[in-house]
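Notes to self after the Tuesday call (sharing in case useful).
The group wants a holo model before anyone commits to mutagenesis around the pocket. I volunteered. Ligand is zinc ion. Logging inputs and output together so the record is complete.
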Amino acid sequence: MSVAIYHEPQLVTHSPFARDPAVRLLVRTRLKPKGVQQARRKHRTRIEHQLAIEAEARVEAATAQKTEPDLLDRFFALPPEVRNHVYRLLLVQPCKFNYSHNFRCKPLWYEYPGPAHTAHGPDSNMNFACADCRWHVWHQGLPVFVSPARSQWAPPMTNEYLCDNCYSQNIRAKREPHPTLRNLKCLCARRENLGIFLINKQFYTEASHVFWTENCFAFENPTILIDFLSGIRPQTRSLITRISFMIDPDEVGVSLDRKHVQQCWRLLRLCDGLTELELDQFFLSNLRWVLGIKNITPKTRVVFMRTPERAEILYLMTYDQRIWKGVSRRQPVKNILTDTLADSMLRQKPMTGKATQALFNRQQRQENGDGDDTRGEETL
Ligand SMILES: [Zn+2]
Ligand SMILES: [Zn+2]
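Result:
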């Protein structure tokens, strides 16, 4: 009769003076004779076997009790295209740049602790504590600030005594890339109905496919793009089909460090399911960036967009309800550089470095008004 091999805990026998009392005790007890060990193992196997049979019986009994199909059975009896349409209605939202504030909108404040809805009144972030940014009020016994922007789907915090800003910056950022709350203006453009992923495994598999392949993922600065695309699994990244990457003219102090932006191109190249890409034409103002962009190969559409100048947006401030005032008014740009670049990207044949450089220089000359083409127009 064959007996399953068990790995008995390895006892430390070389030092009878172990520091741990538990180990010391173990060393003193003599091992039981072989026969006894074998009998115990056999007994243990029998119990485990019995438990497995009982669990199986319980599942069978539950299935037998069900007399008529429940809602889930009926849902999964629908044809897949109908199910996908249900997921689409629940999970696919327009590009976030096109959102307007709703009438209940409460903007977020980034004064520490935060982000909070208001800096004044009883709900104000000033009536709360945080072990980092508001440690000086700790002795007053105030509750720790929990931001209304905190996602219920985020992994649980490993330190409950910090506000969301401090936790993200001091702890989570050191462990994993993650989209921070820093850039949220309000919660109007938040994705909805994500809870349906938790219904069961089949829901998750089917709905997440629709979610990732049919939504547009929009980023208003390089940091958000990097944090998002490097934080998700590579398999998920390959599902993304639509990306919009703009620079928000409304935002001051966007980090456009060269290495930082190059990392964006690397990550976008890794999105191998990409079909539609929208890029800020601002990225065409630097040859190094153009050399990075040319290697991204979306399948059906590449557009370069221009956002209005900051002054134009300032004039809108008083009545405009759009969340991203500048980016929502983006317009496609067409010139020799955008056309040739987009064409080579769509044909999946990136231009050579030399050709890109020549094209870039030509466009620059044209913009500065001293190119051949412009001079030709003037003489006409
Ligand atoms: Zn809003
Ligand atoms: Zn804090």
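Two things stood out.
Residues 112-181 form one domain.
The two ends are 100 Å apart (CA to CA).
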